[in-house]
Amino acid sequence: MQLRRLLVSIVLVVIALMLGLALGPGSAESMYTVESEPATPVVESTRVGTPTQVKRNATSWGYAADRNAARLEVIEPWLRSALSQVCRTRPHQLTGIDFGADQGYFSVELAKLLRSVDHCDAHVVGAAQVFAVEKGGPGGTLWSKTTNATSILVSKLQSLLPADVEGYLCPTEVDRATFTTVAPQCQPSVQFVLSMLHWVRLVDGVPGLCQAVCGMIRAAAVTVLELPHPRARRTYGESRYRGWYRYESNLTKLLEGCVVKFCPRCSTVTWIGQTPWGKGLFRELFALSNPCWLAPTEQGSTAACLRGLLGCRKIARTV
Ligand SMILES: C[S@@+](CC[C@H](N)C(=O)[O-])C[C@H]1O[C@@H](n2cnc3c(N)ncnc32)[C@H](O)[C@@H]1O
Q1: Which residue's alpha carbon is at the smallest distance from atom 12 of ligand 1?
Q2: Stretch (H or E) spanning 168
Q3: What integer is the mean pLDDT of 263-284?
Q4: Which residue, by CA, sits nearest to atom 20 of ligand 1?
């Protein structure tokens, strides 16, 4: 009996040590100074939309076309209200990056949203700008089967972006440094990282995930991050998200852990909802917000920065 208790204690100590190694401050080759004062994440939970209802929208296109409307329904009201709060205190030219834009459904919807945010009037602060970042190639063609997604993306941006919003194509393969270094230099107002982080090179294990998450929080006022369900199988990039969820399959707790241990103060994680994704599964949507975010003071500075660092080029409208 005594021996059994001893063995159980040893096993518990080993598990605790392993968890400590995986999540402890020393494990992330962190680029961030962990502030002496502990981070104070605010973890909010806002259930927007209903995960069981998918409105099929004839105007959806691109990856997961039948689910895009439901995803937008979760994101849009939350983001509009969050950005108008940012603009109330920091009126500035609104800029949005859509990472892994695929055929551009969310880039176009983001553009529509940015032109009508309260307190950031384009006549005063300058026209809103949207940057669609897409590596193209096998990823893109996977969804469209025959055509490279980038050519569809360009034609959608040319014809569907609102006339008063500037659209940019950034034909680049991003990696972890794009989130930790590049985007924070360019200060976009908002970032979409929808269903793509598990594709990105070097975002490995909990340390890689936390570095990317802290970078997103530093870069933008708001980042909308969509992650795969821990039970999702046979999804592209599966080995990467298996590494993220190895010790924590509650995604809110996982992101909260990143924020508390590694991110600067002024970091907020908000679970904004979930949408169905295959049988009995769903994808979870989070907003990563930075209430201390410093809006660029010069019009056009984000575009100039992204042009230089991600090769973004302006798309001329054809319609
Ligand atoms: C699963 S789809 C998601 C598309 C869109 N964000 C959505 O949620 O509907 C992932 C997209 O990201 C692109 N992608 C994957 N890895 C990328 C990378 N490292 N850099 C840029 N684009 C990438 C793929 O080509 C693909 O179009």
Answers
A1: 100
A2: strand 166-170
A3: 87
A4: 173
